[in-house]
Design goal:
The protein has two domains: about 5-145 and about 280-305, Response regulator (Rossmann fold, 3-Layer(aba) Sandwich), CATH 3.40.50; about 145-275, Rossmann fold (3-Layer(aba) Sandwich). It contains twelve helices and twelve strands. It has helices spanning about 5, 20-25, 55-70, 85-95, 115-120, 145-160, 180-190, 205-220, 230-245, 260-270, 280-295, 320-325, and strands at about 40-50, 70-80, 100-105, 125-130, 140-145, 165-170, 195-200, 225-230, 255, 275, 305, 310-315. The strands form two sheets. A six-stranded parallel β-sheet has the order 2-1-3-4-5-11. Helix 3 (about 55-70) links the parallel strand 1 (about 40-50) and strand 2 (about 70-80). Helix 6 (about 145-160) crosses helix 7 (about 180-190) and helix 8 packs across helix 9 (about 230-245). It is globular and about 60 Å long.
């Protein structure tokens, strides 16, 4: 049965970025928001897998800003430790409360199937953000192309390291927001034909746990040529281990994902080769935008796959991340317009 048949209250007429046009037109200037028809103050629920992780601070700012612009309220809920059962409970509570729309980080391929069906039966649209289970019945995914980002990281690893042992650190193996990155990196390394031995290492869901396991792995593998990670906490841990143990002097390379402050500082100081920006602010803002366009149109428009992008941040390009404090990167809660760069 198709998603359209399963969810009779709406139709997925929009494809690609076309569905964004109405909302983008509204966002051209705040006065244009007055053109929105009068509507209830919709309640949106975001179910997250690591609710207290600093990575999602800009995501929550994106949600707040979009809700302020479109006249909505939101709740941030889920699990602090990637517990799918806790996330399912949060979804069930949202359905029972008859909220207007739900966004969920689909970190498990099957755990959310039944809650999504229950939401649809109650007339509640469900979107995924940050992590996706493509075979689920969710209306659309807003986030990075995870496998492709892993491939591109793998290609960067191959460009840095001719041979030897490298670690690929992952907080929670199998979790759908990061496992595709590991898969993509391994495939790119394998396809290069270089004699690089990539070892996948689980680090755990908390930053302190990740740091200790990365340090322990290196102590047992001091012949390693590289340490790379596919999640924010592990990336920060890699950068801290390389910096504190002065491993650059030993020829160590490192890299990973996301923009935690210590990661950026350590890139600037030369302890990390790169990190990848997946623009978490947009994962919140665009998801609200899709929810609202769906609700405004009665399901006629809104759902569209949105790739929030991939941007390598290196020592040459990290400067603006360190010299500005914005909601877009989660470093301040203050509203501000950042001056445009002299060159694009």
């Amino acid at each position: 049965m198709t998603k359209q048949n399963k969810f009779a209250v709406g139709r997925r007429l929009a494809v690609g970025g076309a569905a964004l046009a109405p909302a983008l037109a509204l966002l051209a200037g705040h006065p244009a928001l007055a053109a929105l028809p009068s509507h209830p103050r919709w309640k949106l629920v975001f179910v997250n897998h690591v609710t207290t992780n600093p990575f999602f601070v800009p995501t929550q700012y994106g949600i707040q800003d979009a809700c302020a612009a479109f006249g909505c309220d939101y709740q941030w809920t889920g699990s602090a430790t990637s517990n799918a059962a806790e996330m399912v409970n949060a979804m069930n509570a949202a359905i029972a409360a008859k909220v207007d729309a739900i966004a969920v980080s689909l970190v498990d391929p099957v755990a959310f199937d039944r809650p999504i069906e229950r939401a649809f039966a109650a007339g509640i649209p469900v979107f995924s953000y940050n992590a996706d289970a493509p075979k689920s019945a969710r209306l659309a995914y807003i986030g990075q192309d995870l496998y492709k980002s892993g491939v591109m990281m793998g290609e960067r690893i191959v460009s840095l390291i001719p041979s030897g042992v490298v670690a690929l650190f992952i907080a929670t193996p199998g979790q759908l927001n990061i496992q595709p990155r590991i898969d993509g990196a391994q495939d790119a390394i394998k396809q290069s034909g270089k004699p690089i031995q990539a070892e996948v290492v689980a680090t755990g869901p908390t930053v302190d746990e990740e740091l200790s396991r990365i340090r322990a792995w290196y102590i047992g593998h001091q012949e390693a040529k590289g340490m790379f990670a596919v999640d924010a906490g592990s990336t920060q841990g890699v950068s801290e281990v390389i910096r504190s143990m002065n491993l650059v002097a030993k020829g160590m390379h490192g890299g990973g994902f996301d923009l935690l402050p210590r990661t950026l500082t350590n890139i600037h100081d030369g302890a990390l080769d790169f990190t990848i920006d997946q623009q978490p602010y947009l994962q919140g803002f665009y998801t609200v935008m899709e929810m609202v366009t769906w609700l405004l149109s009665g399901g006629l428009t809104g759902p569209a796959e949105i790739n929030t992008g991939l941007k390598f941040v290196t020592r040459e390009t990290v400067g603006p991340y360190l010299t500005t404090s914005t909601r877009y990167e989660g470093k301040t809660d203050k509203e501000a317009v950042v001056p445009r760069p002299a060159k694009v």
